[in-house]
Amino acid sequence: MGKPVRRKETRRIQLGSVPIGGGALVVVQSMTNTDTRDVKKTIAQIRRLERAGCEVVRVAVRDEESAKSLGFIKKAISIPLVADIHFDHRLALMAIDQGVEGIRINPGNMDFPRIREVVRAARERGTVIRVGVNAGSLEKALWHKYQGPTAQALVESALNHVKRIEDLGWTKMKISVKSSCVPTMIEAYRKLASVTDYPLHLGVTEAGTLIRATVKSAIGLGVLLFEGIGDTIRVSVTGSPLQEIPVAFHILRTLGIREVGPEIVSCPTCGRCEIDVPGLAKKVERRLSGFKDYMKIAIMGCVVNGPGEAKEADIGIAGGRGMGLLFKHGAIIGKVKEEEMLETLIREVYHMKREREAKR
Amino acid sequence: MGKPVRRKETRRIQLGSVPIGGGALVVVQSMTNTDTRDVKKTIAQIRRLERAGCEVVRVAVRDEESAKSLGFIKKAISIPLVADIHFDHRLALMAIDQGVEGIRINPGNMDFPRIREVVRAARERGTVIRVGVNAGSLEKALWHKYQGPTAQALVESALNHVKRIEDLGWTKMKISVKSSCVPTMIEAYRKLASVTDYPLHLGVTEAGTLIRATVKSAIGLGVLLFEGIGDTIRVSVTGSPLQEIPVAFHILRTLGIREVGPEIVSCPTCGRCEIDVPGLAKKVERRLSGFKDYMKIAIMGCVVNGPGEAKEADIGIAGGRGMGLLFKHGAIIGKVKEEEMLETLIREVYHMKREREAKR
Predict the structure, then answer these.
(1) With the CA atoms of A22, A214, A314 and A27 taken in that order, what torsion angle do they form, in degrees rounded to the nearest 10?
(2) Which CATH code fits B13-254?
(3) Are B179 and B185 in contact (CB under 8 A)?
(4) What is the dihedral of CA B186, B192, B195, B198, to 10 degrees?
C-alpha cells in the first residue's frame, strides 16, 4: 500500500452515536427511496441498509405526515436519522421535535429568515444541521451572479448560510456542495476545505444508474478523499440505495482510508488464463459478502503476475493448468485442484480470521 | 463543466493508424480473453470490442501457435493489434514478423540481453514497444532492493528498460507501471510523468470483478487523468473485456476529456420521487447504447433539483405527479405524460442530433 492518506483536520461533531470529522472514521451514509409516510416499508429498507453497513440514513420529509413518521422510524432503527427538508421550514421544526439526530436544509429553497426558528429549535435539541447545497437547486440570485451553478457559486451559497447559523449561536453543522458535474464538485469541495473546518459531507449528485454512478462517485469522492478532504460520504445511485453501500466501502478501501471487508484482487483473464478466474472470483465474493474484516485475497489465472500478486496478498491462489498454488502471507502452503479452490480459500479466510482473533 | 483538464505534454507516437500522446485523444484499449490460437473466436471478440468503441486491442501470445495466428487476426480487424509477450523473446520476434503494430514486453520477465534482438527487429519494422511493468511480476533484484513492488521500484524498472532501448536507437515507446494497489499506481505514474515525456498507458491491474474494478479504475485513472497524466487507458475487469469499454468512456466523459456518448444525469430517487426514474433511465440508456454523440440528458424525479438539472442539460425531464416538464437547452418546451416520456426523450435526442448536423 502507498503512503497513508493524511486527512485534513476538521472539527468534530456528534451525530447521535456517530462522530463525524476531527479524525473520526469517514462515515458512510445513504438515503431511503421509500415513501416516508409508509413507516413499515421505510423501516424495513433502513434495516437492510444497516445490515449492509450503512452508518447514517437520510429520509425525505415532504409533508406533515412524513414528518410525523420520523419518531416511529427512529425508535425502530439503530443508526442516526437525518430528515431531508426542502421549501417548508415548518417540516424542519416538526422533524426536530420528533427527535431526529440531524436535519438537512437546502439554502437554495429555504430563505434565511424562515430558518431562524429552525436554528433555534436545533440548538435547543442539539440537532445537527447539514447545510446541503446542490447545483440543481442553487438560489436564483447566485445562479444569475455566476451565470450558472459554478463551484464558486456553490461555495458562496453554503458559506452564507453557515455564517448566519453561526450568528445565531449554533455550530453543530456539516456542509455539502454537490453537483452532477464531477470537476465542478471537486473544485467546490477543494475551495470549501481551504476556508472552513466544518466536517464535509461528499457526494456527486444525480450520478445515474449503477455503473455510471460508480464511475462518477469513485472519481469525485476518490480525488477528494485522496487529498484528505471529506468526513462523510454518500454514493448516489439511481435505483435501490442498497447498491450504494458496497460502492462506498470499495472507494474507502481502495484508498486505504477504511479497511473494511475483503479486498479481492483478480486478474482480467487473458489468453494465458488456465483456471476459471471470473467464476471463482464471483463465488468468493458471494461467500464473503457479509465478511467485515479486511483481508487481501488474490485470485490469479497464470504464472505471469499470479505468484507475485498471490505473494503480496494475505491469501492467494495462482492458477496453473487445472491446479493452483496456494499462498499465505507470501509463502506457498500447498497445491490445490481447481475444483477445491473455492472451499480451500474460504476455509483459509476463516482460519486466518480465527488466528487474528486469538492474537488480540 | 469545470475548467478543462490541461494535459501534460508528451511526445507523439503512431500505433498503426492511431496517434498516441502529443495532444492526441486519450485512446481506449482492451485485451482479449480468448485463446489466441483460436483465430476465429479471437477475431469475433475483437470485432465486438471494435463495435463497442475499443481503439487498440492486445492479445496474449504464449506460444508459437499464438504468434503465428497474429497475421490472420490482424487482417480481419480494423484497429491496431498489440502482442503481449512474457518470458520468451522469440515470441516477440515472431509477433513483429507477423506485422503487429505494437508489442508489450515485461521488464520483469525478459532480461535485457535477450531483447536486444527484439528492439532491432522493432526498429526495422517500425513496431511500437510498450515497456509494461507490473507490480505482480517486478524483477527480483528490484523487489529485494525496495522490499516489494513500491512506486519507486516500478518506475526504476521501467526507466532502466527504456534507457536501454533508447541506447539501441529506438524511441517508438510507451510506458506503463501498473499495480493492483491504487495509491501505489498513482504515485508511480506521477513520478514517471515528472521524468519522462514518453506517452503513458494507464491501468490498475488485477482490479477484480465489475463493480470493484470500476471503483479502482475510476479512482486510479481518474486522479491521474484529472492531473493531465495519461495518453491511453485500459480498465481491467475480471470477466468479459466488453465490460471494460463503457467504463473507460464513462471515466473520460466524467472528466470532460472526451465527449463521447450521452451523459445521463438521473437522481437517486427518494421519498419525493413522483415518476419511475430508474425504469426510465435504464430504458433511455438501453435505447441510446450505440449513440456516439455527446449530449447531456437529465431524468429527474421531483421539483427540488429537477428543474435546475433539466435546465442545465441539453434535454431534460423534471417529473411531477405522473407528468413531467420537458426542457431543451434550458427552456421548457412542453408537458409530457409519464407513459410518453421515453419516446419523447428519444425523439428529441435524435431531433437535436439532426439539428446539430444541419448546422455543420
Answers:
(1) 20
(2) 3.20.20.20
(3) yes
(4) -130
Facing B238 at nearest CB: one of A60, A266, A305: A266
- Shortest distance, CA B228 to any CA of chain A (angstroms): 13
Give the tens place of pLDDT for each residue, A198-219: 999 999 998 899 999 999 999 9
Amino acid at B49: L
pLDDT in tens, B307-323: 888 888 999 999 888 88
Q: Where would I find the H helices in chain A? A: 39-52, 64-76, 89-97, 112-125, 140-146, 151-167, 182-195, 210-226, 244-254, 277-287, 306-312, 341-359
From the list A100, A25, A53, A97, the residue with the least C-alpha distance to A241 is: A53
CATH class of the A262-359 domain in this structure: alpha beta
Residue among A60, A145, A348 nearest B303 (CA): A60
Boundaries of every domain in chain B:
13-254, 262-359
Residues of B in contact with A261 (CB under 8 A): none
A122 to chain B, any CB pair closer than 8 A? The answer is no
Per-residue confidence (pLDDT) for residue B305, from 0 to 100: 84
Dihedrals phi, psi of B144, to nearest 5 degrees? -70, -45
Helix, strand or coil, per DSSP, at residue B235: strand
Q: With CA atoms as reference, report the closest residue to B294 among B328, B249, B327.
A: B249
β-partners of residue A316 are: A298, A327
Rounded (5°) CA angle B246-B252-B257:
150
* pLDDT mean across residues, chain A: 94
Q: How many CB atoms lie within 10 A of CB B38?
A: 16
3-class secondary-structure state, position B345: helix
DSSP code at position B243: G
Beta carbons of B206 and A180 less than 8 Å apart = no
Which of the residues B43, B110, B305, B312 would you substitute to probe the A interface, choosing the one with the greatest number of A C-beta atoms within 10 Å?
A: B305
A184 contacts in chain B (CB < 8 Å): 1-2
| Contact state of B308 with A241 under an 8 Å Cβ cutoff | no
Grid coordinates given for B42: 479471437
pLDDT of residue B320: 85
Segment 206-235 of chain B within 8 Å of chain A by CB: 206-216, 218-219, 222-223, 226
| Contact list, B36 vs chain A (CB under 8 Å) | 271
Contact B238 A109 (CB under 8 A): no
Separation of CA B345 from chain center = 29
pLDDT of residue B1: 59
- Please give, rounded to a whole number of angstroms, the shortest distance from the CA of A296 to a CA of chain B: 11
Predicted confidence at residue B76, as pLDDT, reads 98
Neighboring chain A residues of B205 at a CB cutoff of 8 Å: 267-268, 305
